[in-house]
Amino acid sequence: MRVGVVGAGAMGGAIAAMLERAGNEVWVAARGEHLTAIRRDGLKLDGAWGEYTARVSAAKTLPLKAKPELVIIATKAMDAEAAARDNARAIGDAPTVVLQNGLGGMERVAEQLPGSPIVGALSMIAASYVAPGHVRVTTAANTVLGAFRGTQDADAAELAASALNAAGMPAEVIADFEGAQWTKLIVNQVNALPAITGLSVQEVISHAGLRRIMTASMREAVRVGLARGVRFAAFNGLTHARLSFVARAPLSLGQMLPLRIRAYLGATPNPGSTLQSIRRGRRSEIDFLNGAVVAAAQGTEVPVPVNTELLRLVHEVETSGRHLPVRRVIDRVTAATGPLR
Ligand SMILES: NC(=O)C1=CN([C@@H]2O[C@H](COP(=O)(O)OP(=O)(O)OC[C@H]3O[C@@H](n4cnc5c(N)ncnc54)[C@H](OP(=O)(O)O)[C@@H]3O)[C@@H](O)[C@H]2O)C=CC1
Ligand SMILES: CC(C)(CO)C(=O)C(=O)O
């Protein structure tokens, strides 16, 4: 199959390399020194799915001659709309998968690609951008896909799932994609503290004080979802019942959530995608993660002081380029929220 991958960074790069390894003809849209390195040396993959250098065709945008039968947009959320617009002619009416954390990704891309069936993807894979032309899978895991709307999108979701499965990346189509987006939004509460402190997700969860803050931000996010009538879809062992319990439980019990995520991530340190943006001096996706929780809380009675403060701290680190010491983070959050229980 001819596949176009727009945004061949950590996730898009890993998926592009795996698809090429499985015999697909893969075209990637990339930029800067990453594009130069891919063109010169190929796209190097290592980690949980083995070592491989994929020979993909790479350009700033997909060329018209690529004629993709499937497109995967795997940019950060704030870049997806522009990425879809800049590649719209080459994409044509090809089925397009929007692989993205946060809420509302499919809607933003669909506006730019009115002729394409649109599919959402949420992945529990953890991947890192190591260097230009080089990506690494630190945790191999599954991906869930969901149709945006209608039969055409549902067929496209099946097509994408078979392409991923055939290339050795476990994927399944689920009916309640919006519920899964909310469940993933809870998982992505792991992203802010590594971005603020510079520590890996596992290190943050192993620190009792930081884990308390993370649990409190997850609890707020679950409460917001419940207040908005969200039914959390079951995703990697996280179920609506478990999350509803966390919404009512003290933090000492709620910490089972981050501890479970640490167990699934395994031993290889995972910086998370937000810290990786900061390390590369890029704007982060935090407005679509903790920022989405703060936005969704508006109009509900749910207070979200932890998410508000984490959002502020990530923006501070983006601006200053300097991570904050753990003690300072704990003091700042507790000054904003009062004692966390
Ligand atoms: N990394 C992970 O472990 C996981 C990430 N996710 C989600 O997947 C999505 C992608 O994340 P991730 O792979 O980490 O992000 P990366 O930043 O590693 O990759 C995104 C890539 O897209 C490139 N890009 C942005 N706009 C364009 C464009 N118009 N044309 C071509 N390339 C473009 C970026 O270039 P540049 O660097 O120049 O900005 C970058 O190389 C996010 O929504 C993230 O939350 C989900 C699960 C796990
Ligand atoms: C699941 C996790 C935490 C994997 O790194 C992720 O989605 C991210 O980094 O954005």
From TrEMBL:
InterPro entries: 6-PGluconate_DH-like_C_sf, 6PGD_dom2, ApbA, KPA_reductase, KPR-Related, KPR_N, NAD(P)-bd_dom_sf
GO biological process, one term: pantothenate biosynthetic process
Gene Ontology CC entries for this record: cytoplasm
A molecular function GO annotation: 2-dehydropantoate 2-reductase activity
Alphabetical list of Pfam families matching this protein: ApbA, ApbA_C
Catalyses which reaction(s): (R)-pantoate + NADP(+) = 2-dehydropantoate + NADPH + H(+)
Segments forming domain Ketopantoate reductase C-terminal: 176-318
UniProt entry tagged with the keyword Oxidoreductase: yes
Domain Ketopantoate reductase N-terminal positions: 3-149
Enzyme Commission (EC) number: 1.1.1.169
Similarity section: Belongs to the ketopantoate reductase family.
Name of this protein: 2-dehydropantoate 2-reductase
